[in-house]
Each structure stands twice: as structure tokens, then as C-alpha cells.
Amino acid sequence: MFLRRQTQKGTLWNRSLKAKPSNRNNFWLVLLAVAVSFTHVIESAEPVFSVVFSSFLGVTYPIKVWLSILPIVFGCSLAAVTEVSFNFQGLWGAIISNVRFVLRNIYSKRSLQNFKEIDGLNLYGWSSIISFLYPFPAAILVEGSQWIQGYHKAIATVGQSSTFYFWVILSGVFYHLYNQNPVRPLNALGSAIAILGTFLYSQATLKPKKIEAEKQS
């Protein structure tokens, strides 16, 4: 999983598809004060909490941004109501998770105001690398002696090393498919609407960010 994520980020930076951030020493000191646990996909309702909490802090958004969160709210509500395994404990857990991630993101953006080249994607890249380095020594100590044996065993199981790497790359997709969670038509519709709303939100917030970046440059 880590290899696949870092390969994606390395490709973006090395191919100049994403501007590589400068590695200044004081950047790491600032980053240590924020969470680095970007290890899972952010729930699609997070933009709603982000807009609301940012508004409390004095940030203003154009009407397009507010309209873009409406399909997110509707889609998430429809998906939750039609969820086969719905329970309030899971619902509140997701809401608390969203609030926590939003507050962390707001705090990290405020802490990194002096690092204009560190946007969301680059911050995710650096924090993923750091989150890997933290437990790496413990992983070597506990199970490092089994890595080579496990690697050869995995290769022998699938037959060829190319096949093994192919499945590693696709693990992000099949990780979600193998759960075989039943999905009703309305549940799928709600999820699709929420995803569409998230896309509209990202497009609505993209233009103001470009205008602000041009003013600062």
C-alpha cells in the first residue's frame, strides 16, 4: 500500500505533473505540530464541515461553493438512509471523523501560511512519507527478519514477479471490492450524487484559489 502511494506521488513530482515543494528546514518544524495521519480516504461529506467551520473563523465563500455542498448533503443522506448495515454508532463515528479531519486541515493550513508551495496534495505527500517513517523502525525490529522470506513466498504463490507487482498496484481497488458489501440502487445513487457534489465543490473552490495565488505572485 505504501509502495503504491509513494510511486504515485513520486511520478507526479518527477514528471512535473505537480510542482515539487521546496524542502526547507523550518517547514518540518511547522509540520511536526499537525497530524500526519493521512492514511485513508476522506469522507465525501468533509467539504460541508470545512465550509461551515471555516465560516465561523471568518472565511467567506462564494455562492457557488455553498450550492455545491447541497448535493453532498443530499447524496450522503440518501446513502445513509438506504444503507443496509446502517447504525447510529457508525453514523456518529463518521461525523466525528469528519469534524476532526476538518479541524486538523484548518489548523495545518494556518500553520503553513508561509509555505505557499505546500498545497493539499503536496502536504498529503509529505505527511504520508512521515507517517511511514514513524513506525518503520518498530516494523524492522518486530518483523524485519520475515520480509525476505515473505516476499519470496508471495512471488512463488502468484508465479511471476510481474504478476505480483501488478496485484500490488491494483490492491487499492480490490481492497474495497473484496468486502462484498451489498449496495441497493438508491444507496448507489446517493453515493454517486455525493461524489458529484464533491467534484463540484473542488471546482468551485479551485478558481478562487487561483485568483488568490495570482495576486500573491
Automatic annotation (TrEMBL):
Q: Which GO terms describe its cellular component?
A: membrane
Superkingdom of the source? Eukaryota
* Swiss-Prot/TrEMBL keywords: Membrane, Transmembrane, Transmembrane helix
Q: Main site of residence?
A: membrane
Chain ranges passing through the membrane: 25-42, 48-74, 123-142, 154-178, 184-201
Read off the Pfam families from this record: TPT
Q: Does the keyword Transmembrane helix apply?
A: yes
Topological relation to the membrane, as annotated: Multi-pass membrane protein
What sequence ranges are listed for the domain Sugar phosphate transporter?
Answer: 31-180
Subcellular location per UniProt equals: Membrane
| PANTHER family referenced in this protein's UniProt entry, alphabetically | SOLUTE CARRIER FAMILY 35
Q: What is this protein called?
A: Sugar phosphate transporter domain
Which species does the entry assign this protein to? Dillenia turbinata
